[in-house]
Amino acid sequence: MIGILGGTFDPIHYGHLRTALDVQQALGLSQIKLIPLSDPPHRDAPTSTPQQRLDLLKAAVEDEPLLTIDTRELERRGKSYTVDTLLSLTAEQPDETFCLLLGSDAFNGFPLWKEPNQILSLCHLVVMQRPGETDPTHYQDRITHNPSDLSTKASGLILPLSVTQLEISATQIRMLLQHGKSPRYLLPDPVLQQILEKKLYQ
């Protein structure tokens, strides 16, 4: 099974990286694809360029082979819709099982995404939760609490999974930099080094 974690990663930080590794280890995924979005449909456009965000991603995961970077969203024109990415991935690897990682807040809005039912026909969902958080209230007939269930079906299940909760946001990091303060220990040092060298977000 392969995990998929999309985001603007503007910039990538430990909140993204630690939770991705939590899921990989809990489910024994062969890898997690980090997919930077070009033009997200449900949020503001990124403040840095696609190439700048991609360079920061590369710096973040260069020592972690289980986290890989997939650039198909950056290469495709138009809005970055998850269903289009999944159609592309499953066409390339029709025998692979994919698990889409998303946070609880994102999952709350999932019914409003483009083609949510088609997404569920193409992958499983892993809803990353804060410790002690209750189950989602929609799609309850698809919810399982047994990670091994994901390997018995090609798609369509929803697994709530408690992950390390790091209250870090890219907005917080950008604000610190804009005010001349250090965001060290919120993101990997090689990422911060590139941000400072290229004077990003300042």
TrEMBL record:
Residues 4-174 form the Cytidyltransferase-like domain. GO terms for molecular function: ATP binding; nicotinate-nucleotide adenylyltransferase activity. Pathway: Cofactor biosynthesis; NAD(+) biosynthesis; deamido-NAD(+) from nicotinate D-ribonucleotide: step 1/1. Its EC number is 2.7.7.18. Keywords: ATP-binding, NAD, Nucleotide-binding, Nucleotidyltransferase, Pyridine nucleotide biosynthesis, Transferase. Belongs to the NadD family. Catalyzes the reversible adenylation of nicotinate mononucleotide (NaMN) to nicotinic acid adenine dinucleotide (NaAD). This is Probable nicotinate-nucleotide adenylyltransferase. It comes from Sedimenticola selenatireducens.
